[in-house]
């Protein structure tokens, strides 16, 4: 029998709770649902009012992995949806607004990806993001070095940056912005990526060509485009281990000497939230948003 639970007055179907989704540690779907339920207070504010793209891996990362942007068939009528025209063609997409819809979405077994704008102000970006992606043999250690340079460069323009792991190999830098279109934010991000390559030519590449990446950090500025999305804070990633895109302190970035120091799994997040709170909470405060130069 498929379990049905009540969450904030909503009936939510939860299925296959014993299925192993992250085989390296035996992490099950039941544990995944528990993770999202206990992380909801930190995660939900970063999802709210943003159309969510799901990178689904219902049989684990070794099975079929696929993106879902349109509202999936069978979505309950109480899940909020919105018509979105800023993606690749018009789409009706899910908004994860509350714990009930988060638990329904989590039962789909997916990474959560969001754009750098909200449905209420889709013509104006409220986030700036850099995805720092290392090309082997470079690792997140080199990403941290580039992140420190970008942090100082952004600060010179009066913009405060925050960091999180990608949950995969790299690092994400985020900042709250206002008063600019996605096109303008993308333009500004590209300018800084080019500056970073000029300042750190042996460490940084700003172009997507894979042939240029070995041993360097690709500063991906393109995720600021209106149609692009980035892995949300606290989302699990479709990997053999239940790694999380976890906010980190700048002290952790500065002190990173090996990749293992910045790998966080689902069980690590509750203690980090107790110790640090949500390190990305300042991004949610309107007064924290900066105008671009």
What does this protein look like?
The protein has 293 residues and is α+β, with helices and mostly antiparallel strands. The protein contains 6 helices and 17 strands. The strands form 4 sheets. Strands 10, 11, 12, 13, 14, 16 and 17 form a 7-stranded mixed sheet that branches. Strand 11 and strand 12 (171-180) form a beta hairpin. Helix 1 packs across helix 2 and helix 1 packs across helix 6 (266-276). The longest helix is centred in the first third of the chain and has 19 residues, at 29-47. The N and C termini lie far apart (58 Å).
**Roughly how many Å apart are the termini?**
58 Å
SSE pattern: EEEEHEEEEHEEHEEHEEEEHHE
Could you give the count of β-strands? 17
Given helix and strand content, the structural type is alpha+beta
Number of helix segments? 6
Classify the oligomer. single chain
Mean pLDDT level? 95
Radius of gyration, in Å, reads 19 Å
Organism: Streptomyces bottropensis
EC number: 6.5.1.1
GO molecular function: DNA ligase (ATP) activity
Protein name: Non-homologous end-joining DNA ligase
């Amino acid at each position: 029998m498929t379990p049905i639970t009540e969450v904030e007055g909503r009936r939510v179907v939860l299925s296959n709770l014993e299925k192993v989704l992250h085989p390296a540690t035996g992490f099950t779907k039941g544990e995944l649902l528990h993770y999202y339920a206990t992380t909801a207070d930190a995660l939900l504010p970063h999802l709210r009012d943003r159309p969510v793209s799901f990178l689904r891996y219902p049989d684990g990362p070794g099975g079929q992995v696929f993106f879902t942007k349109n509202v999936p068939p069978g979505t309950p009528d109480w899940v909020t949806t919105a018509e979105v025209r800023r993606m690749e063609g018009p789409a009706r997409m899910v908004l994860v607004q509350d714990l009930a819809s988060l638990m329904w979405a989590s039962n789909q077994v997916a990474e959560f990806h969001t754009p750098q704008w909200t449905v209420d102000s889709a013509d104006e970006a409220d986030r700036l993001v850099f995805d720092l992606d290392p090309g082997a043999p470079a690792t997140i250690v080199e990403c941290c070095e580039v992140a420190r340079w970008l942090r100082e460069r952004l600060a010179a323009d009066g913009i405060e940056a925050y960091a999180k792991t990608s949950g995969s190999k790299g690092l994400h830098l985020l900042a709250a912005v206002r008063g600019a279109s996605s096109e303008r934010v993308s333009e500004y991000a590209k300018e800084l990526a080019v500056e970073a390559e000029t300042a750190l030519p042996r460490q940084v590449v700003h172009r997507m060509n894979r042939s240029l990446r070995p041993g360097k950090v690709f500063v991906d500025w393109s995720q600021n485009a209106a149609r692009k999305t980035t892995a949300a804070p606290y989302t699990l990633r479709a990997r053999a281990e239940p790694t999380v895109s976890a906010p980190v302190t700048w002290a952790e970035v500065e002190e990173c000497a090996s990749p293992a120091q910045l790998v966080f799994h689902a069980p690590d997040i509750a203690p980090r939230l107790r110790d640090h709170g949500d390190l990305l909470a300042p991004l949610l405060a309107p007064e924290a948003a900066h105008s671009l130069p």
